[in-house]
Amino acid sequence: MTVLIISFTNLRSRWFVLGTMLGAVCLSVGGCTRKHYRTQADCDVEAIYQEKRAEEAWNLPRLPGIQVDPRSRFFDPSPEDCPALPPPEPRLHGYTLPQLATGDPRQSVDLAADESGDLESVDDSAEPDETRGEANPETTPQPELIPAGNSPELIDPGLIDPNVQGAADQSQTGTHQPIIVPPYSEFKSVAPSSSDPTSSGKPKQVAAATPSVGNMRVADTFVQQTSAVQLAAPGATDGSRPAAELAISDDADPEQVDAPEELALPADSEAVDSDSLGQLLQNAPDADADNTPSIESDAADDERLEDSDAQPTGGLRIVPIPPEYWGRIPQTCIPRMLEFESVREEFRRSYPKATDAEIEPMLSDAPRLSLPNVMELTLINSREYQTRKEILYRVALRLTRERYDFWLRPTRRGNGTALNYTHSRFRGLTNNRLAIPTNAAVTQTLCTGGQFLASFANSVVLTFNGPQGFAADVGSELLFDFQQSLLQRDIVFESLTQAERDVIYAARDLIRYRRELFVDMAGRYYNLLLTYRAIEISSQDYFSNLRAFLQGRAEYLKAGRIPRIQVDQFEQNALRSQSSLVGDCNRLETSLDRLKLAIGLPPEMPLNISLSELEALTTSDELTVTRQLVQRTKTSLLETTAGRWSERDSVVNGATVLVDRLMDTLRVRNEVSGIDEVTDEQRAATQLESILALIESRLQADQLDAIRRRELSGDLPPEPMIRFARTVDLIDAKLAQAEAAIGLRALMRQAESAASSPSDPDAGPADPVEDKGLEQLGQQVETYNRELDQWIRQWETAIEKRQLDELESLSKRGDPLLQRVDRLDREAAGDLLPDQEGEMDELIAKTVKEIVDLVDQVAGSDVGGLDEVDIDDDEAMLTALVQRYDLMNQRGDLADARRQIKLAADDLRSIIDIRATHILRTRSDVNRAFDFTFDDSETRLSFALDTPLNRRIERNAYRTALINYNAARRALIDQEDQIKFSIRERLRQLRLRRTQYEIAVASAALAYERVVSTRLQLQLAVGNVVARDFLEAQQDFTGALNSVAREHINFILERIDLFLAMEAIRLDPNGYWEGVDDEQLELPLRPPFLEANPNPYGRLAPCLMYSDEIRSLH
Q1: Which of 665, 628, 616, 658 is nearest to 640 (CA)?
Q2: Percent of the chain whose predicted confidence (pLDDT) is above 90
Q3: Contact residues for 1072 (Cβ-Cβ < 8 A; gap 6+)
Q4: In this structure, is residue 386 part of a structural domain?
Q5: CA distance 1080 to 990
Q6: pLDDT reading at 511 higher than 90
Q7: I want to staple 897 with a disulfide (CB 3.0 to 4.6 A). Which of 188, 438, 747, 968 is the partner?
Q8: Kind of pairing between the strands at 608-609 and 368-369
Q9: Which residues have CB under 8 Å from 649's CB, separation 6+?
């Protein structure tokens, strides 16, 4: 606007002035655009972020801006500088999950993906023999031997349903059904007795229907080696042990197995959705009745269970849960339960015709979030996180304002011009005047703390019809002013100093908040996994207790074998389990909604959690539990072998249980380590198991042979039935011995082949002649088995036709077969078994020693379990004190408080100001706006002194500053002590969690054995065991399983808290810490103090002339 002072005498100058005035007016009125100011602020703030990171030696991660992610719920698509109000109408389900860099949470569910039950993996290449119900004998692995699922149950034969398709019990890849041997110390084999004359010689099997939890599966079958004729001599012991196998019908025809008529699945439906599930459950018998099991209800079930007693035992399987009991579970709970393969197996037992394609739509189709997904969504949608970013942005904006004061800048107001037109009349004279005042000024706070001001003022007065006609009066003035305080310059710098430091504080607060946010979300995520785990355990607990109730009711109604009060106890426990299951499902829904709120998602959005992490934790827990079972079994075996080798049966039984559990430990260890091939330890364990099976069959055959000889060599001729029963038992035992010998030789041949061909461990036998010999021996065993079966059928036919006179000759027809089997047995066993009794004891001792050595070798592996908390407390505390951001801020607060002492002390002093002012004016005799002259100028110098005669307020402020400093110093000490306590407490909690985990694992192993033994004793009416004993064992086992999962997850969370307390968490751009997957407890390297804290008490603003005292503080 300075052009207004140009003389109007020149026409060109006049037009130039008018054009310039017009442009200036347009510019001043319009100004810059909104976008310009917004982007300029963003650029300034980003520059400050980069500058502060450089000042801190790049110890600060990259600081995020406040721009909202377009995938966020609160992203506003309207123009940023002119946003539109959102629609006022409320909406539901208005947000869908965006594409995430951490993975797609919408991945489909595939029930037949793999045998671990991973619902998120998809395998389209599965061959038909890998699907459920079609076992592939060539790929069937060794049995799983150790449980960690829910209660091992022994189901009475009266509850066995032999007419249901057994394929539904097999794993998804067509493998065997997992099995478990009851603890050898709890049972002793029952030798054939001499009191029952009705034996057929074949073993009678009692199935152990045991549900599974996660990947830990259990199924016990107790095989009693007894004849219907009890002919054993008093005190005789049987060398056999309870066999570990779940009998499943091999000849069951899938086409002949029908689903329950009242709940038949739609034949033409390709998928069953949740509505179909509801209809299925609602159509269940008594689904609308009282939601409690009852003795008086379900008479049809009791009849079916009673009728099953008459079924042959060749098709033994776990009795299915009656469909009506599925209908009594809330429909909202069913999809959560079906997340787990163990529950889906139970569902398939109840609905044999239900295929994977029909079960899959029953599952929740909500997106399945992993922890990285959760963190990415949280950073996108968290309102609190966005607020924290905006807080940092505001602090940085304040710094731009403070820095601007030290720039040469136009003043905020007073830069402009005006047009003042005056029309006046006085005594008939008219005067028209136009005044155009113009002002412009710049100011700056100097590095010395002084203030500089430069201003320009122009005045143009045009008189159009005055006494002298048209007249013009143009004048300008330049002002330069400098003011400096001599003693209080630090006070001038304080606003900028504090603003600079506040940005660092806010940046550290934001970074630590992000890490705390990760810890909080990880805690929510893992607690959700724990709730899922509780649902699986509660489901199996419910099924187990329900089966116990149904069995007890059947026994009570059938023959009154147990008292009514025990049935009521079973029923009460089933109701308790159902209540616990429903409560867990409800807690899961509540926790999911709270997780959505924490993420920033709407509560009504369907959401689920990926269970892959839970499966990994479950597998790790399974490995730890199996190891504990192995150690317990080893200890018990060593106690048995300590000077009591005469009890060879118990030793062999214990060694067999130990090697079975060892094999399961090796299997789970391979799963944890991701090893697919068979390891050397597994081959050694398999061979030892075969040796034990051969020894066991030899002991049993020798015992039966001794019993037969003793009873047939009596003074009186033996009864034909006794001869027949004992001969059948002995032939059957010798055939089992031959089969065990053949199997052992095959394993030995395979081991020799693997040793000769290390590159192909699975190579077949190298000697085809010996291989052919083993095959011929196997064929002879099959032939003799058929002859034995034919002889048994002839005997049964003679009994049915009452041809008693033929029994004598018929009972002797087995002698030739026995002689041939004996020769086969000697040929098959050969040098595998010794002939002398003493040598047999040596073989058993050698085998036991090899097993114990192998157990010790496997126990030394570092796979699975929780690491020892071998962390030095002092090192951990020093690491935290060096790296903690909140402690850095506390140190900065202490320096700020100390600086306030200096500022308050300056206020106590005299105020001495110097000021210099110079004014230049244009010549008054000409109308020239820029014709400045020193002839018309003015210079002013001033010196001001304000003595400290009244400093009461300042004195109080100074004393307060001293108090505040000491308070800040105590606060710093307290913060350090709190950090030390936090580290020590977290280490104590970490050690406690590990100890509690080990206790929980030991408790789970012990509770498992209690359940097995108590259930078996209750089943066999041994001692004074009652239903309450089993129920207590069942509850203890369920609680122990929950404790194992809870303590493991608590250990993980405590470890995350420890690393947060040491400021050792480093997040990726999506807010996820990759170290959460590593459960190792190695401390991060502690950096040197000055490397982590390049400015321990903060920095001062550069280029400012602080006092020496202030500089000494930083």
Answers
A1: 658
A2: 36
A3: 102, 371, 372, 375, 376, 518
A4: no
A5: 12
A6: yes
A7: 968
A8: parallel
A9: 188, 189, 237, 238, 239, 240, 241, 699
Q: How far apart are the first and last CA of the chain?
A: 47
Structure tokens at 27: 């510019």
Q: Is 98 exposed, middle or buried (0-12, 13-18, 19+ CB in 10 A)?
A: middle
Q: So what's the pLDDT on residue 553?
A: 86
Bridge partner residues of 912 (DSSP): 945
> Which ranges of 642-767 would DSSP assign to H, the alpha helix?
648-673, 680-712, 720-756
Coil vs helix vs strand at 54? helix
pLDDT in tens, 356-394: 888 888 888 899 999 999 999 999 999 999 999 999 999
Radius of gyration of the chain (CA): 45
Per-residue pLDDT at 456: 93
Task: Check residue 166 and report its DSSP letter.
Answer: G
**CB < 8 Å & 24+ apart, contacts of 762-771:** 762/678
Does residue 14 fall inside a structural domain? no
Domain count for the chain: 1
- Cα angle for residues 110, 622, 667 (degrees, 5° grid): 80
Structural domain boundaries enclosing 985? 874-909+949-1113
Is 964 part of any domain?
yes
Reported pTM: 0.75
Question: What are the distances in angstroms from CA 278 to CA 283, 332, 364?
Answer: 8, 10, 14
pLDDT in tens, 863-916: 667 888 888 999 999 999 999 999 999 999 999 999 999 999 999 999 999 999
The two three-digit tokens of residue 1029, written as one number: 């004993």
The answer to whether position 125 is within a domain reads no
User: Which residue type does 600 have?
Assistant: G
Q: How far apart are CA 248 and CA 225, in angstroms?
A: 19
Cβ–Cβ under 8 Å, residues 620 and 663: no
| Three-class SS state of 594 | helix
Name residues whose C-beta falls within 8 Å of residue 530's C-beta, 6 or more positions apart in sequence: 1045, 1046, 1049
Residue 256 near residue 315 (C-beta atoms within 8 A): no
Amino acid at 1091: E
